[in-house]
Amino acid sequence: MKITEPAREIDVIYNTDVLVVGSGPGGLAAALGAARAGSEVTLLERFGCFGGNITAVGVEGFAWYRHDQTIDSEGVGIEFEERAKAAGASVAEPQSNSHAIDGEAFKWVADQLVMEAGITPMLHRMFVAPIMEGNAITGVIVESKAGREAILAKRVIDATGDADVAYRAGCPTVKQAKEDMIGTSVMFSMSGVNKQRFIDHVKADPHTYSDWAYGQWTIETTGKEDQMFSPFLRKPFEKAREAGLIPKHLDTISGTWGALYDTGDLTYLNLVHLLGFDGSDPEDLTRGEIEGRDQAMMAIEALKQFNPGCETAKLRNFGMTLGVRDTRKIDANYNMTEIDVREQATFDDSVGIFPEFIDGYGILILPTTGRYFQLPYRTLLPKGVDNLICAGRITGGDRVSHAATRNMMCCTVTGQGAGVAAALSVKRNESFGDLSVTALQTELKRQGVRLH
Ligand SMILES: Cc1cc2nc3c(=O)[nH]c(=O)nc-3n(C[C@H](O)[C@H](O)[C@H](O)COP(=O)(O)OP(=O)(O)OC[C@H]3O[C@@H](n4cnc5c(N)ncnc54)[C@H](O)[C@@H]3O)c2cc1C
Known about the structure:
Strand content: 15-25%
CATH architecture of the largest domain: 3-Layer(bba) Sandwich
Helix content: 25-40%
Number of domains: 2
Shape: globular
Radius of gyration: 22 Å
Largest sheet: 7 strands, mixed
CATH class of the largest domain: Alpha Beta
Oligomer: single chain
Structural class: alpha+beta
CATH superfamily of the largest domain: FAD/NAD(P)-binding domain
CATH topology of the largest domain: FAD/NAD(P)-binding domain
Bound molecules: flavin-adenine dinucleotide
């Protein structure tokens, strides 16, 4: 059955130069990039905090790939890490030369970054539809406790993680078949862990990246990753399955612990993996939240019974929403390829670099050798709609390229690129397609981005 939604008049509540929809690593970086390039910027977010997966899901491993030889991205992503560190909102990450960001405290850090940059903050408003004039997007319709409202904008940046704006504006998008999507996860944290006992046990029985392959999981590496330490937990869950605490078929319960604080908080527990869920389908999201929380509780009981240091620990919190890794991407003016990310691609219109770090679809390659690739401006540009640019994990590319570009630091690179492009597009009165790449790269360099 269908019904017709009646047409209605709604208030235009705001008119802005650059509107960023979504505030994850991509959107937050985009808003800062645009504001620092001199634009008047509004940052729209459906939840009550900025930060996207960092804060709403609790994905804290911001640069867990970084080793001595890694040549890393530069720009606003490094600033996120440094600001978190300066605010006491991070802790040394166990497998790398990096700090895990405290997802809770980063809510406050992100507020500070937004307010300092003079960005207009808009929380608790959800994008629901584009406003179009022919092929051009001229604003968005939002829903909130205040009802339905309109925001007009000269340029719109889609940083929703799901390409909501591009998709609804009519741009071509692509999505893996549900069974091929990278799994979704209910992330959670525990408190009351005996840190010394936990670490002593890790040292006595260390895991490596080769442990990622077992049961139904396979992992392709270059070989150099295999014997490197990974903060991985598998054995307690095997014991729990043998003891009947976890059903035998749930061999997907295992994974990484992220950060361990002196206070006994064990956070960013990436132990629940739900396969065959589409994060752009609310039915799957509902099922994923409920099944995921149930599996997380089983995992906690297994850790209490079978992992030294966790005996008296308890659930601290679930991520406030299901963690979704893989939904729609745009079919961009240039779609990145597997060869680009594996073979150090270079581009004349580069907006930044990212190390050779590939994690997803059964591949793990760590950037331990100094190899890196560049990201072209064209990979941010959707087809068929003017005044719209994209940032974060929705930019154009094939499966394997996304296993690299979906990573949060890389999302800040495409975010800052999109933000600066939007600001300059308004200032210079040039369309995204005609924007001067020299002007874009000059401003990105001025903002501290490494382009080549
Ligand atoms: C469980 C899990 C573990 C991961 N582990 C790692 C890791 O260790 N390291 C790593 O680098 N990456 C990791 N990733 C991947 C990484 O977190 C994402 O790819 C990255 O956060 C994507 O950034 P983004 O800005 O594109 O989108 P997101 O971080 O998803 O942010 C999108 C934002 O847009 C908002 N939004 C969405 N739709 C709307 C709408 N209609 N209206 C208004 N706002 C909207 C959302 O609320 C959100 O704040 C992990 C992902 C998951 C789910």
